[in-house]
Amino acid sequence: MSGDAVVTVEGVSKLYRRMASGFRFRTLKSALLERSLVRDLEPQEVIPAVREVSFSVAPGEAFGLIGSNGSGKSTLLKLIAGILEPTEGRIAVDGRVSALIELGAGFHPEISGRENVYINGAVLGLSRSEVADRFDEIVAFSGLEDFIDEPVKNYSSGMYVRLGFAVAVHTDPDVLLVDEVLAVGDEAFAHRCVHRIEAMLARGKTLLFVSHTLPLVEDLCDRILWMEDGFSRMIGEPRRVVDAYRDAVAQAEGRRHREEKEEAETEAEAEAEERPDRWGSGRARLREVRLLVDGAEGYALSTGSSAVFALDVEAEEELEDFVFGIAIRTPRGVEVWGTNTELEGYRPGRLSGSTRVQIHCPDLRLAPGEYAVDLAVHARDGAPYDYRRGVFTFTVSASRSSTGVYEPRHRWEFGPGVEWDETG
Amino acid sequence: MLARLLRFRGLLLILTGRELKARYRGSFLGFFWSLVNPLLLLAVYTLVFDIVFQARWGGAEPYSVFLVTGLFPWIWLSGSLLDATGSLLENSGLIRKAVFPAEVLPVVTVLAQLVHFVLALPIAGVALVGARLFDYPVGGWSVFGLPLAMLVQLPFVAGLALALAALNVHFKDVQDLLQNLLTLGFFLTPILYPLSSIRQVPWAWAIVAANPATPYIQIYQDLLFAGVWPAVSLWLRALGTSLLAWGFGCWVFARLRNTLVEAA
């Protein structure tokens, strides 16, 4: 890496270490009782947040970080700020770092803005008098003159950012780390911040900037690092990196849409497969079912032809409680017609041995299309003996096409003034 | 650790000041409220032991004056540890999201409690002067050793505070356990009774004498009550315990430091 770099990041990885899965509920008592004190303090689960990232930033450079949520940008900033320690690799920062990482970070909610400014200054290494010297400037920049003695818990998120930014830039850092927070402030304040940052850069100070506001990053930064899954995907000239990132986001978005659609389709199929098409206790069985068209077995008919649904039934034992049923559905599951002996007033007496049941439809006026048939024999309370769903399908064709499922007998009649060149 | 704390002394002072201000919140009476608790304890123990039980221990007359000299340093210890234990979790916003020296927080609670201790000293002073007026041979020039006693006790309190604060981030019941341990510790420290009074019961004497908090209390009792300069061996024991506790606290804190940010 170049010798005059202000920030040097070399092969840095960060693994977030989780304690044992139930670690939120761990108690010292149980740790002592189970003699697992040492083990409980060992990390159990490791989540890589930043992986083998290297880059360096020169004085006066504005360096941008972009990438989707969870890509490791903020972790990287926290590492550079020194809030987190890298698991592997080396980070060197030459000079004083001021970090504006998260909304309200470093503020104590219960105490006044004024005291928080002093605390922040002290954390950044300024003495009380140094903070006092800059205090008026800080307050003026933040525009919070009227609220500076209020506890900061009463501040709006915009006010948090104003104060945080004001403190961060007025402590005169050599390196300023800013994470997204500018998006919270209003337009005017954002302008003031950008202005201030540009002035800092002109004085040879360095900026590391994380944002999802791509035009702002592109505009402000000299170089951009695009992070993906903790890896550094691309470093370089802003325009090029932002364009590549946008492309990738668009592609991923398209892929996600396709995947979601496919997933929905396979789910529907799986669901259809899971449903059995025959069930029941088997006390009576539909041994064979056929469609007879004009007296012969066939599964293609035309609108208005006569059809017979023929069921060969066999009762395992003598039954006194039985109902025969039929339903015709479209392939998409819309029921066209359904009935059973119970609905039509047949009181069951006795069913025994092998026999035949036929449903005659002398004039089946279905619209052209494909239909599926469910046939069943069951008890009067609905308990199935043999329920066969989609047991066969048949097609209805017609010389003339129509839509829907039903074609009533019909004719057209026209008054005077309606003339046709040709009639059906 | 010490170097870091010294580097952030400005922060220590500001935060300690804040802590005190929050306690005494603006009102002049606020300061007196902070004296109510020790005074109440003092009154209750005096009532129970001196008046109800009519306990008479050699070398503990007048009883309430004897009590004051041990009770106030104990309150510094127990109050500090109780406050420090929760200090990291209460301020997790500071240490997770900003560049913040976490070790400052438990030390701040110790310093704030030290200020309470100092502010309560006039009560002890009044008690001593009062006892003198009744010709009890308490106090004397040795009271000027008081700052030294505090200085020796400080690393003991701060070390334990650091260790407890860091452990509490990982084990949420440290605070509850501590509460019980402190209650036990209070009775196993010669505060309500002089150590010499249980010499006839060797096992009890052994336990109390082995209590690491005992030498500190004895030093205060020697300086303020008995009016004698504590034996060199007593000073050395206290100093040794302090250095051990400080070393232990720094070691625990340093070991857990990297996990604090992620777990707090």
Word description of this protein:
The complex is a heterodimer of chains A (424) and B (264). With 424 residues, chain A is α/β, with parallel strands linked by helices. Chain A has nine helices and 19 strands. The longest helix of chain A has 37 residues, at 238-274. Chain A is elongated, with a radius of gyration of 39 Å. The N and C termini of chain A lie far apart (86 Å). The relative contact order of chain A is 0.10. Chain B has 264 residues and is mainly α. In chain B, helix 7 packs parallel to helix 11 (232-263). Classes of the chains: A alpha/beta (424), B mainly alpha (264). Chains A and B meet through helix 1 and helix 4 of A and helix 2, helix 5 and helix 11 of B.
Descriptors for this entry?
heterodimer, A: 424 residues, alpha/beta, six-stranded mixed sheet, 33% strand, elongated, B: 264 residues, mainly alpha, 0% strand, globular
Summarize the structure.
The complex is a heterodimer of chains A (424) and B (264). Chain A has helices spanning 28-33, 37-40, 73-81, 113-123, 128-142, 157-170, 187-202, 214-220, 238-274; strands at residues 7-18, 45-57, 62-66, 88-93, 97-100, 175-179, 206-210, 223-228, 231-236, 278-279, 284-293, 296-297, 300-302, 307-319, 323-329, 335-340, 351-361, 369-378, 384-397.
Topology, element by element:
The complex is a heterodimer of chains A (about 425) and B (about 260).
Chain A: E1 7-18, H1 28-33, H2 37-40, E2 45-57, E3 62-66, H3 73-81, E4 88-93, E5 97-100, H4 113-123, H5 128-142, H6 157-170, E6 175-179, H7 187-202, E7 206-210, H8 214-220, E8 223-228, E9 231-236, H9 238-274, E10 278-279, E11 284-293, E12 296-297, E13 300-302, E14 307-319, E15 323-329, E16 335-340, E17 351-361, E18 369-378, E19 384-397
Parallel strand pairs in A: 3-7, 3-8, 5-6, 6-7, 13-19
Antiparallel strand pairs in A: 1-2, 1-4, 8-9, 10-19, 11-12, 11-14, 14-17, 15-16, 15-18, 18-19
Chain B: H1 2-7, H2 9-24, H3 28-52, H4 63-90, H5 92-97, H6 104-133, H7 146-170, H8 174-187, H9 202-210, H10 214-226, H11 232-263
Helix pairs in contact in B: 2-6, 3-4, 3-6, 4-6, 4-7, 4-8, 4-10, 7-10, 7-11, 10-11
